[in-house]
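Milestone M4 deliverable, item 7.
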Amino acid sequence: MNSESPIPPYRHQRREPKERDKYFKLRNVLNIIFMIGAIVGCAVFYYSDHFIGTIIILIAMAFKFVECALRLFNR
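Output delivered:
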């Protein structure tokens, strides 16, 4: 009996090829900006001024909201 199945395994989520997602690179850049901003904001919040740290984190969150909007509206 052949151990290889002719039917590929079922995948719950299929990844689309990168060329079909025209915002892929932009979303990655926005995610990187968000991650750096969140880390810097947390560092400023805990080691320096709470108010400035909060502002930096909120600005980083704005980048994340834009990335999420691109992901949702791209479908």
